[in-house]
Design a protein that fits this description.
This protein has 342 residues and is of the alpha+beta class. The chain is 45% helix and 13% strand.
C-alpha cells in the first residue's frame, strides 16, 4: 500500500490476514486487489482531481443498487461494499476510498480482437440501460458536467483557434480547417438532444471494452467502472463503442494507413446493442443510431486538437505533437466511418 491511510481504510472493513497487490491497468483511480480471510476485494482511491465530488458517485451507485435490488434482483451490479460502520465511501486525509467484491473467474479485455467480443460488450451495455429503463434518471448526480456536450466542445475548439499557440496552429491548420468544415455534426447533435423521443436515460458514458467483465467462456458478465454513470442519451454509449471497437488500432496510432473499419465488428455492435434494447428504444433513436458514432468520434477529434492548441493542458503528452497525432487519427476514423455508413 502507498501510505498509512490505506492501511486504516483496510482496517475499517475488518479484513484480516491481508495481501495487497497494485493493479496498474486503470488510468484514473489508484486500484489494489486485496486478498483477505473474508475473500478477495478491489480497493480504489478515487481520483478527486477528475471526480471532484466522490460522494455523488457513491450516492449514484447506492441509489441504483437499491432500485435494482427491488426491480431486477437477478442483475449483476458491482456496487461498493460497506465497511464495519456501514459506510461505502471512506474519506480519510483528503482522499476517498471504496471497495468492491472481486468478481471471481472473470477477466477484462484491453482491445477488441474478435467480433464476438464486440457483440458481448454491446449486449452488456445495452442490458445495463435496459434494466434501468424505469429508473428516474433525473435523481442521479452529474458526476462529469458536460462530459459529452458536443456543442460546448465545439465552442472550446473555436476559442482555442482564436487564442492559439501560433507555432502549433501552423502545424494544426489543415486538421483544424477540416474539423471546422464538419461542424454540421454539431447542428445534428443539437437537433438530436432536443428531440422528444431522444429521452434521457441512465447511461454508462465510458463503453470501452475494458469496462466489461468476461467469464472463462468468453461471455460478458457485467459492466464495471461506474463512476461516469449519470443521465445521458443513447448516442454516448453507442457512439463510444463505434469509436473504440471499430478500428484495429487505437487513437494513439500515427500511421493512418493502419486505420480501417472492421465491418464484422460494426455488425456485432449493431446487433448486440439494438437487439438487446429493441423494446426500450424509440424509432427516432433507431433511425439516428449511426449518428452516435459521428458525434463521439468528431467530439474526440475536437478535444484532442483543442488540447494541442492549448499546450496539452488536459491530456498531456508523452512526445511532441502527440495530441495532434491523436486528432488526425480521430479525423481519419471519422472519414472512414462516414464512408461506411454511406
Amino acid at each position: 500500500m502507498e501510505n498509512a491511510a490505506c492501511k486504516d481504510v483496510i482496517a475499517s472493513y475488518g479484513w484480516t490476514n491481508t495481501t495487497v497487490n497494485t493493479i496498474t491497468s486503470g488510468l484514473i483511480n489508484h486500484t489494489w486487489k486485496v486478498h483477505t480471510d473474508s475473500g478477495d476485494f478491489i480497493l480504489q482511491r478515487i481520483n478527486t482531481d477528475v471526480f471532484t465530488h466522490p460522494e455523488q458517485i457513491d450516492e449514484n451507485m447506492t441509489r441504483i443498487a437499491s432500485w435494482l435490488a427491488v426491480h431486477a434482483p437477478g442483475y449483476r451490479f458491482t456496487a461498493p461494499v460497506k465497511n464495519k460502520a456501514g459506510i461505502s465511501l471512506i474519506q480519510l486525509e483528503g482522499a476517498a476510498y471504496r471497495a468492491f467484491e472481486f468478481q471471481q473467474n472473470t477477466h477484462t479485455i484491453a482491445v477488441v480482437t474478435h467480433a464476438e467480443e464486440a457483440f458481448e460488450a454491446a449486449k452488456q451495455f445495452a442490458l445495463f440501460t435496459q434494466q434501468l429503463a424505469g429508473f428516474p434518471a433525473a435523481q442521479l448526480h452529474i458526476t462529469l458536467p458536460d462530459f459529452h456536450n458536443l456543442a460546448l466542445r465545439f465552442q472550446q475548439f473555436e476559442t482555442a483557434l482564436r487564442n492559439n499557440n501560433e507555432e502549433r496552429f501552423v502545424k494544426a491548420a489543415a486538421t483544424a480547417y477540416t474539423l471546422h468544415q464538419l461542424k454540421e455534426i454539431v447542428a445534428r447533435y443539437n437537433r438530436y438532444i432536443g428531440h422528444p423521443e431522444a429521452r434521457q436515460r441512465v447511461m454508462h458514458h465510458d463503453t470501452k471494452i475494458s469496462n466489461v467483465l468476461f467469464n472463462e467462456a468468453g461471455r460478458s458478465v457485467c459492466v464495471i467502472d461506474l463512476d461516469t454513470v449519470m443521465p445521458g442519451h443513447l448516442f454516448s454509449d453507442a457512439g463510444d463503442m463505434f469509436r473504440t471497437y471499430l478500428p484495429p488500432v487505437s487513437e494513439e496510432e500515427a500511421d493512418l494507413d493502419k486505420l480501417y473499419i472492421r465491418n464484422n465488428v460494426f455488425e456485432a455492435i449493431e446487433t448486440g446493442y439494438l437487439g438487446t434494447l429493441k423494446y426500450n428504444i424509440s424509432s427516432f433513436e433507431t433511425a439516428h443510431f449511426y449518428l452516435s458514432g459521428e458525434i463521439m468520434i468528431y467530439m474526440q477529434a475536437l478535444r484532442f486538437l483543442t488540447d494541442y492548441l492549448e499546450d496539452d493542458r488536459y491530456y498531456g503528452k508523452k512526445y511532441p505533437d502527440q495530441n495532434l497525432v491523436r486528432a488526425k487519427n480521430q479525423l481519419r476514423l471519422l472519414e472512414l466511418y462516414q464512408e461506411a455508413i454511406g
